[in-house]
Amino acid sequence: MTQPVSYVELHSPDPAATNAFMSAVFGWQPTPFAAPDYLVAPHGDAPGVDTGLLASRDGQPRAVPVIRVDGLAAATALVKEHGGQVVVEPFTLPGVGSGCYIVDPAGLLIGLHAYDV
Q1: Where is 71: in which H helix or E strand?
Q2: Contact present, 87 and 67 (Cβ < 8 Å)
Q3: What are the pLDDT digits (tens) for 62-100?
């Protein structure tokens, strides 16, 4: 896989309740990352990927895979060329890089993230 899922986001209509649940059931300890309301539960040394926890933009709960790309401009051009669309325009993540959200032709929501190392 050349462009892996680098993390998963949990979009919750009630981030505080989801945070409490994940902490109690799975021992997660999400901490703010890139913004005070964007929490990350790192996978540490165990297998897996980091998980972001944030408020759902439309109030619907969902899990969103986030795929690491080299650059958003090239990735979004390919998305459009192959029948997908950008549903949340690129935004900056200070100190981390940039991201956006796309849907594939079937409507599957996917996050894209380009690191700015």
Answers
A1: none
A2: no
A3: 999 999 999 999 999 999 999 999 999 999 988 889 999
Q: Are 35 and 91 in contact (CB under 8 A)?
A: no
The per-residue pLDDT of the chain, averaged, comes to 92
Instruction: Name the DSSP class of 76.
Output: H
Angle at 66 between CA 86 and CA 9, to 5 degrees: 110
Structure tokens at 26: 């799975």
**Sign of the dihedral through C-alpha 22, 27, 33, 35:** positive
d(Cα 72, Cα 99) in Å, to the nearest integer? 7
CA separation for the pair 81, 10 (Å, rounded): 28
What is the reported pTM?
A: 0.87
Q: Which two tokens stand for residue 82?
A: 């192959």
Alpha-carbon span 5 to 1, nearest angstrom: 9
Single out the residue of 22, 42, 24 nearest to residue 32, CA to CA: 42
